[in-house]
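Hi Prof. W.,

I finally got the 3-dehydroquinate synthase prediction working! I wasn't sure whether to trim anything, so I left the full sequence exactly as given:
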Amino acid sequence: MTSIINENYAIHFGDECYRALNEFIAVKKPSTVFVLVDENTMEHCYAPFAAKLETVAPIEVIEIDAGEEFKNIDTCSGVWNALIELNCDRNSLFISLGGGVVTDLGGFVAATIKRGIDFIHVPTSLLAMVDASIGGKNGVDLGPLKNQVGVIQPPVMTLVDPKFLSTLPEQQLRNGSIEMFKHGLIADRAYWENMLELDFDFSSDTFESLIYQSIIIKNDVVLSDPFEKDARKSLNYGHTVGHAIESYCMSNPKQQEELLHGEAVAAGIIIESYLSQLNTGLSKKDLKQIEEFYEALELGLKFSASDVEQIIGFMAHDKKNVNGEVRFVLLNAIGSYQTDCVVDVQEIRNGFKLYLS
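And this is what came out:
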């Protein structure tokens, strides 16, 4: 897979990751290399990564707790303080080795400590490879509200080594694949259909190629609109509802235990596809295909009428909102979208009724 070289950052794949990383380190000569991990990536990923890291600089590992509930300012404070205690300076290098929580939080910490130091993302989950580590969005949650505090600052490079996927259970692979399906829905019908043909067979010879194509789709969208003024909003398809579901579950942890990001977004995709049929012309045939994709996930999330009202309430905090109006990305067809769509709240309720049926 050919490296993707942009003006301000690069994305490397496979063995090329380590050649590019070590070449960068040789030129930069960092004072210290900091590696952020959680307990999972410390156990499964750090040793093989460190074995390929070539540097004479001291290496300091900072470990955080795993899980979305720790993606917050308190965790950032702990990492910032650790960096200061370990003599971080402007010539330090910060490497985030982990899934979406580690890369989101790590990028935010690195972009703000000492007013910004160089950082590199090494995503180890499928979700982080195709979504969280691409595009420069870094940040944390504020209580149950998703991604409310952060910055847009790309890493100097992202290193995508599919070998790390062998450490993941199938549920985590499905979780990440939902963002890949989303990329097809907003940008490329042929890619969407290729994902359907994959049929969640993550051992398929075509799987790595689909990861690569998914990264290209996201990278192209980001390059066209780095600061999310227009086209980049399309990457939030399924997320207006999905993030609200996540926020609701974070504030009611016994309601939907261990809900994964992709699972919430998949529910959001179903509901926002229904809204697309009502408002932007998505055909019944396309909606049916999307429904069949969701049914194959066998997630079975359940919400009462009271739950739905609380979820709708969380949508008021969505970052795309303007003047208090909830703005959706909706599909005209698979592969084509509209941004800044305002939807009647009763249609949202009806979308949940369809989903729950």
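The radius of gyration is 20 Å. Does that look reasonable to you?

Thanks,
D.
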